């Protein structure tokens, strides 16, 4: 081969090599960490991760071939969150899926470089994770759940379902919830509009739930807003059972509560975020920067009424409200 032809060939290969390398990058074994702030035995949560894995498969990722997933289940144990966050970061994965607000807090304290995709996180701005949803910058992006005006909507819907409600308590665990002040402005505005007294009802352990609801039910006109909270999600069956026992109308932030016998729910569909999270993971593994991917909010917020529970509480739900619901469980 003549020298000029050889130099031309080398130049052509040099130009092609970077793009070829990028195209082949997904074929190498890459590792993602997944840190989850829910109970491992929760069927709903398991279904979310089945959808997450299925979406990754459709995108060309095969566990054991070009992808390895490291799962860690922390429940709502803050010590486990810290331990597992450090453990995953020490593995130096190519990306981490962070599930729930407290888990994300633990992870961002451990790394500012490993890409983090969030899901089932309430509000990344008020939690201090980012300052801009459209262009988060840094190493974090993903899918948020709530915005402040939803607080007022919970109170409004509860009042329309149960017109006799004159007092509402907000049930939450201070250690695992989004700061309640995030919702208070809209809740207080709605409370003033409907002449309802709103107060906070913090609980710190499962065995405190009954005492708080029993005290609330001690006077007429009681209603309950079960706030977005990892603690509340894990203890949903207990909360629903106690609210039924004391005949306290309650509205919840997630449809699994209504499915499990809660009176009503108004909140985003958590499940839809996991295939979306898989798409963001895919894009990051193929070279995109998390800080350039916008944090997305839910497009639709379903309103679910459990008519069987309403009937058990002696509530005559207005037909107009039933027609407005996305789903009525009978």
Brief sketch in words of this structure:
The chain is an alpha/beta fold and 330 residues long.
Record the SSE blueprint.
Elements (H helix, E strand, L loop, with lengths): L2 H22 L5 E7 L6 H16 L8 E7 L4 H13 L4 E5 L1 H8 L7 E6 L18 E5 L5 H12 L5 E6 L8 H13 L3 E6 L6 H8 L5 E5 L3 H5 L1 H10 L4 E3 L2 H5 L4 E3 L6 H13 L17 E4 H6 L6 H6 L2 E3 L1
Parallel strand pairs: 1-2, 1-3, 3-4, 4-5, 6-7, 6-8, 8-9, 9-10, 11-12
Antiparallel strand pairs: 10-11
Kindly report how far apart the N and C termini lie: 81 Å
Oligomer: single chain
Strand order of the largest sheet: 7-6-8-9-10-11-12
The proportion of residues in beta strands is 15-25%
Strand runs, count = 12
Give a structural overview.
It is built from 13 helices and twelve strands. It is an alpha/beta fold. The protein has a seven-stranded mixed beta sheet, sandwiched between helices. Strands 2-1-3-4-5 form a five-stranded parallel beta sheet, sandwiched between helices. Helix 2 runs parallel beside helix 11. The longest helix is centred in the first third of the chain and has 22 residues.
